[in-house]
Amino acid sequence: MSLWLSGIGVSRGVVIGRVHKVHSGELDIPEVEISNGQIADEVQRFREGLAEAKRQLSDIREKIPASAPPDIAAFIDTHLLMMQDSAMSDAVEALIAERHCNAEWALKLQRDSLVAVFDQMEDAYLRTRRDDVEHVTQRIQRILLKQDRPLNAPRGKNTAPAVVVADDITPADIIILHQQGVAAYITEYGGPLSHTAILARSLGIPAIVGLHHARRLLSDDEEIILDGEQGHAIASPDLQALEFYRRRQARDARYRRMLSRLKKEPAVSSDGQKITLLANIELSEDSKAAHAVGAEGVGLYRTEFLYMNRDRLPDEEEQYEAYRKVVSAAHGPVTIRTLDLGADKQIDSGRSHSGPTPSNPALGLRAIRLCLKEADMFRVQLRALLRASAEGAVRIMLPMISNLQELRQARHIIEELKVELRAEGLAFDNNVPVGAMIEVPAAALAAPMLARYADFFSLGTNDLIQYTLAIDRVDDEVNYLYDPLHPAVLRLIHMSITSGQAAGIPVSMCGEMASDPRYTHLLLGLGLTEFSMHPSSILEVKRIIMQSNIAELRIRAAAVLESSDAAEMHERIAALSNGH
Fold it and tell me: Could you tell me if 371 and 400 are in contact, meaning their C-beta atoms sit under 8 angstroms apart?
């Protein structure tokens, strides 16, 4: 009898194979009180475990082929840097000495502390970086507990494609399993923005995450179908299901071949309208992958990683070098978002927020609000960004703008810094565009006013949807309410686009909605002409654009917005998305 399971599809593709379960789930961490005389030995034991973890990751990194996507080595480097960070090493040693606890217990305490910081972050992408903390600490824990078993795929000439099933999988595990020929994976935890999910997409490995109790419900060597697009897994499938998904595999292979031929084609609709396709990137190396699929620039480059997990703020020179490297590597304009963290994070030279812990950090002092309050910190970043603008086309994007005063104040600081740089003889682009992220309902409603002072808008739909609907999309209890097609959300998006058009400024979208082919027709109909997304989504969105009559889509989208009934609106959107 077949068993149908559903999780979150994070990397497309269909695999028909056999279940291979790995890992044993949660580690049992012993809590042992040690004496003064044992502290030095316990610190040494931790250092040896940490050194072995670093050695393992370094070995994995050395075996990555030079032709592999740049994301792969970058994720391993991220974990190596975390292991070298004092927040991981010195802090654990201090806990061993201060609390007289064994290394495993001290590491768990520090992990809990770091995870709590990430959990309070409003940016969903940054919040999922807690997974990296979990992965790094688990690797060290397994070494300390002597449970560090090698991760191996099943072997044998007649072995069917292996579908790994685990509680969670680290980026390093993904690389090992990929090198061993694993076809797909399923995890009980994780989300679409985790490094593991991003890496699976970069490698083209079909994957499902958040499929709770998968290890208990599935048996080793059981035949399974995995649909990484829909998030479905079918265990012990019948002949009808097997035949259906074999046809899907053949169709998908033809589709991928067709998409690859579009790399150098311009994104022009059937009625002759040019659409700009940009990439969301994390590292300068990602620019290569973006350019390879025809991205015309960078629509979102996050800067938070320069500030996190460190004892002191990055200075102007460090930031300038980081931004210069990205700008130099990009093929087209680069939109760089200024710091988007909150006051509850330890980002200011080790000083914690001195006031009471905010009860709701999502609505507190964060993003542009924090930057305007901590003006010295903000000025350092803006000086570095302005200097980087001399190396190529840079656009400065201000996050979480909610009123006109914030935008005007930020622009005033930028103008002051231009005077400083000019006096110092440092080069910069005097006309560098400064734009606002539209990610709170107040900004969308005030878009006509903001457009008079912004050089461009960028729709951050991930946050705009969450704030509009008052839900947290990574919270399992309420994420079913996360609806990009909610009438209120669509009207706010349309209002922002039309306000930008009326003012003659570009409007882009850098949220996940832009990369989802289900919404491409709708967004074109709403007037969006600039999309920014993960490079892996560009070709599919381009295909839809090239087959679209945008003038017709705009007439049909107007009818969608006029619908007063939610069910009717969804029916019209479905017809629009399907091209009917």
Answer: no
